[in-house]
Design goal:
heterodimer; A: mainly alpha; ABC transporter involved in vitamin B12 uptake, BtuC; B: about 325 residues; mainly alpha
């Protein structure tokens, strides 16, 4: 019986994936583009060379971090849509720390470490703001978070054009790049940093065990499933919601900090690069289970990097990756609903 | 600045609020029925692009606007089907659609970027437009702006002055009670979600065929409007008149930002453009905070006169959502 349900589950998911591919192909046909050519270019763009695959990994790591953080808030029943802003604040705090310390006599390794910790702090701070609005102000975390996202973006732009502007005139290309000794070291000739790799994978492992194997994870689950029952059973509910926000903010801030120290080496206007929203999609696609985050996030990162090729070769917009990701999540959600409707739950 | 400039500026505020108005009224209708359509941000972009593309290809503004309504209704249908029939989370489906429709509009809109297209011209109403002050403000607008005035009162009248409007409130507040009294809750939810979606679908063409004519892809400046419109819906307390006030306030703040820009050269324009957001959060806070327990406790410690005043202000600001917003209904 159990076996049959597993196969049924897989069947529905496969159908969802096929439908998503069909829809995307249709969209390509509407845009009068050759679908096979487009898919081929995405694959070449993402996997064509070792260097390109390493770029996929560069995009994979922040996605791992944001998704890991989001698993915590989702477990507590919270829709932390403000995660984009939390990534941004992480980047801002890291930049801030680097600017303050770059003239000092501290060893560069220590400066980088402090800056990354500052980034985590920044993310946690911004997340706790959304949390406070939710728990003390009764403002739904979706709306509070969205507002905070916009404020974070405005703050970034203000800093880039105002107090932190390049010598001469500020520009959309960002702040003055930091000296090379403050860059997180990368593999030779690649943009990938072994440190980011370790931190990203570690984050997912930590979250996996936090949610599965600890008392804290269990209490979060209780709050997420039924907040009233959890409260009556003596779980301090609002404290756990705040903690969930803060933990998620730490991971988001880390993602933002690493974008500054390991990837861009400066603050740019779109520093969060949509990794927060993409993390929400990945979390939905894996049905909030940590086990599948790594491969699904890798697939999303591959699509994003692969589609960069599209405007160059086929004069198509690179948002095709977003179309494919979005329709995939939508169809998987709908397939899950259809399966429950037709065959009952589980 | 002379009076005439200000007057024309304010007329621009009314016109500029039109797209937001459709979005907010459409969402209010949807949420009154108990369904959240979170896809608005994507819907607005997709309808702006789609209606512009159709208007360019056919040369017909009417077909452009109808396309917008059709796309809006279609997206709403997906929300309704996924949440009502398939019982998936409305928030999840809406959020995915918001991103999907945004990316779709950028991808499919690529060939239409920067093209010259038809644009709605002002329809000056003879006679009424001669009235001093009011004439310039209200009667020298284009048709879609007039429609945005009309839709406020249509929605208000429907909600509070008709029998089906009463049923609409019922299926959002107490669906079980409405069901017992013979209302087909889920069918009506489908209906109102699709109608609301069609109205939201007017927001895109109200930009791309009127006040921000054309399609400019990611630099259209439309990304984010849908999220603001969602906040205004809450600010509006699910009442069309208060929602309309919110939409005009937002449009006014944006205009104020533009006017202040040359006077505050140190602040980049992008910062002034987002000035409404902190204010939105603040208003959301004020709308909701009256319900918080610690506020009640703090108020109790204040002297009588102050306490009564603050309590009165908070009560006036407060708005509670339809009781069954986002809650699926099953008759069995």
């Amino acid at each position: 019986m159990v076996k049959r349900n597993v196969w049924l589950n897989i069947l529905f998911q496969v159908v969802a994936v096929l439908l998503a591919l069909g829809f995307t192909t249709l969209v390509l046909l509407v845009a009068k583009a050759p679908p096979l050519e487009a898919y081929k270019n995405i694959i070449i763009g993402g996997l064509g060379t070792f260097k390109k695959f390493s770029d996929v990994l560069v995009a994979w790591l922040p996605l791992l971090l944001t998704t890991s953080g989001l698993l915590v808030t989702f477990t507590a029943g919270l829709w932390n849509i403000g995660i984009e802003g939390q990534v941004t604040l992480g980047a801002i705090f890291t930049t801030w720390a680097l600017r303050l310390l770059q003239e000092s006599s501290l060893p560069p390794a220590l400066i980088i470490a402090i800056a990354i910790l500052a980034g985590m702090l920044g993310g946690a701070l911004w997340a706790s703001l959304a949390g406070a609005l939710k728990t003390f102000g009764g403002v739904n975390e979706i709306f509070g978070g969205l507002g905070l996202n916009f404020i974070a973006t405005a703050l970034t732009i203000w800093l880039i054009f105002g107090p932190w502007k390049r010598p001469g005139t500020g520009s959309m290309s960002g702040t003055q790049p930091f000296p090379e000794e403050l860059w997180l070291p990368t593999f030779p000739d690649l943009r990938l940093s072994p440190w980011s790799l370790v931190l990203g994978i570690l984050a997912l492992v930590v979250i996996y065990f936090l949610l599965r194997g600890t008392y804290f994870g269990l209490k979060l689950k209780a709050v997420g499933r039924n907040i009233r029952a959890a409260f009556l059973l003596g779980v301090p509910t609002w404290q756990h919601m705040m903690l969930a926000f803060i933990v998620c903010g730490l991971f988001a801030g880390l993602a933002g900090g690493l974008q500054v120290t390991a990837v861009y080496h400066r603050l740019i206007p779109s520093i969060s690069s949509g990794y927060g929203f993409a993390g929400l999609m990945v979390a939905m696609l894996v049905n909030y289970q940590a086990l599948w985050v790594a491969p699904v996030a890798l697939f999303f990162a591959f699509l994003n990097i692969g589609s960069i090729q599209l405007p160059i070769v086929l004069k198509l917009d690179s948002t095709l990756s977003g179309v494919l990701q979005g329709i995939l999540v939508l169809f998987v959600l709908m397939a899950e609903g259809a399966r429950q409707r037709l065959f009952g739950k589980r | 600045m002379d009076t005439n400039t200000i007057l024309i500026g304010l007329a621009g505020v009314l016109a500029g609020a039109a797209p937001v108005m459709f979005a907010v009224i459409g969402e209010t209708i949807t949420e009154r029925a108990g369904v959240i359509n979170l896809s608005m941000n994507g819907t607005i972009l997709l309808t702006a692009m789609g209606s512009f593309a159709v208007a360019v290809d056919t040369g017909s503004l009417l077909l452009g606007f109808l396309t917008g309504m059709a796309i809006g209704a279609l997206v709403a249908l997906v929300v309704a089907f996924s949440s009502i029939t398939l019982r998936q989370s409305q928030v999840a489906v809406g959020f995915v659609l918001a991103l999907l429709c945004r990316d779709l509009s950028y991808f499919l809109g690529n060939p239409y970027m920067g093209l010259q297209g038809p644009r709605l011209s002002n329809a000056i109403i003879p006679g009424l437009s001669e009235i001093p002050i009011l004439g310039t403000l209200f009667f020298k607008q284009d048709i879609i702006t007039y429609l945005s005035f009309l839709i406020i009162f249509l929605a208000w009248g429907w909600f509070y002055k008709t029998r089906p409007g009463l049923v609409l409130q019922g299926i959002g507040e107490r669906p079980a009670a409405a069901f017992v009294r013979g209302a087909n809750v889920n069918r009506l939810r489908y209906l109102y979600t699709i109608i609301g979606g069609a109205i939201i679908g007017l927001a895109g063409p109200a930009y791309s065929l009127s006040i921000k004519a054309g399609w400019k892809g990611t630099i259209s400046g439309l990304d984010g409007i849908g999220w603001i419109a969602l906040a205004i819906t809450i600010f509006g307390g699910w009442n069309p008149l208060r929602a309309a006030f919110g939409a005009y306030l937002f449009s006014f703040l944006q205009w104020l930002g533009l006017v202040l820009q040359p006077r505050l050269p140190n602040i980049p324009s992008q910062v002034l453009q987002v000035a409404p957001f902190p204010l939105m959060i603040l208003t959301l806070l004020l709308v909701n905070i009256g319900d918080a327990e610690w506020v009640t406790r703090m108020l109790a410690a204040l002297p009588e006169g102050v306490r009564r005043f603050i309590a009165k202000v908070l009560r006036a600001m407060r708005a509670s959502p339809p009781a069954s917003l986002g809650v699926p209904f099953e008759s069995e």
